[in-house]
Amino acid sequence: MGKHMTLNGKSIYVKSFGNGDPIVFLHGGPGGSHEFFLPFAESLAADHTVILYDQAGCGMSGAVEGDRYSIQDEVGNLEALRQEMGLERMHLFGESWGSMLALSYAAKHPSHVEKIMLTAAIGLTNEAYAAFKTELLQKLGTFKKMRFMVNGMLHAIGINRTKQILNLLDPYYVYSQETLKKKKHIPYNDVVQSKISKDIEESYNLLPHVKTLSSIPILIAQGSHDILTPFHMERFFKEHLPHVEIVEIGESGHWTVLEQPGEMASVASFFFMNSGESFTIK
Q1: Among the listed residues 260, 95, 255, the one whose alpha carbon sits nearest the alpha carbon of residue 174
Q2: Digit-coded pLDDT (tens) for 187-210
Q3: What domains are defined for the chain?
Q4: Coil, strand, or helix at residue 247?
Q5: In sequence order, which residues have a C-beta less than 8 Å from that of residue 93 and are 6 or more positions away?
Q6: Ranges for the AB hydrolase-1 domain (predicted)?
Q7: Contact 223/249 with Cβ under 8 angstroms?
Q8: What is the rounded CA–CA span in Å between residue 226 and residue 229?
């Protein structure tokens, strides 16, 4: 099911299974891996070809010489994957940073995108990304915020503090603390995270492409208790893309596919297999 492909001169690990119209899953991070979507994605394989891959430098994909990681490089890698697999059109499922990648790809290659489903979505601009970080830090409170900043500085000078940082942040990504017991450890590439995060902060802006994006069906399935709530999605999307549908996933934080996999699979199946139907916020 899994193999390495050479895409744009990079070794990219790709896994595919199932039958039917293809859904390409775009993992978060930046710097995460396709494993976040397992076993959730398997539930869609009866009706779709599920395609998972590790973005450049992530998971089992090879590192990029010179640490050249950017939004547009990842857009190019996804387009190379589409061509290599012979896909004329595909559905995209983007989670967190993957939601920004999905929209960035669609803005450049709209003719190859059938539908887009987003979860743990951020927005269309770096303003929304800044709001995500602000909301998260506010949830930490003063003492934990100071610990987070100290660990971040130590990490920046080469002292690995990933475990300590995740221990501080993870509880704010979920609705129920029980979810943390079933969360798989997924190694992150800190270099990828740093490079692409900086690129998002400096250049992420899809407002010039809203006319293009308005031609593509887009559904956002956002956790009721995500750091950016469904009502943030109204603020960051509806003004510019009024056709976007927003579904609230109850009793869920940022990691909807971990906390509510059954509901997410039902929403995804209905959205990808039907046309002309509408969702509304609960």
Answers
A1: 255
A2: 889 899 999 999 999 999 999 999
A3: 2-273 (3.40.50.1820)
A4: strand
A5: 23, 24, 25, 26, 37, 102, 116, 117, 118, 119, 268
A6: 22-260
A7: yes
A8: 5
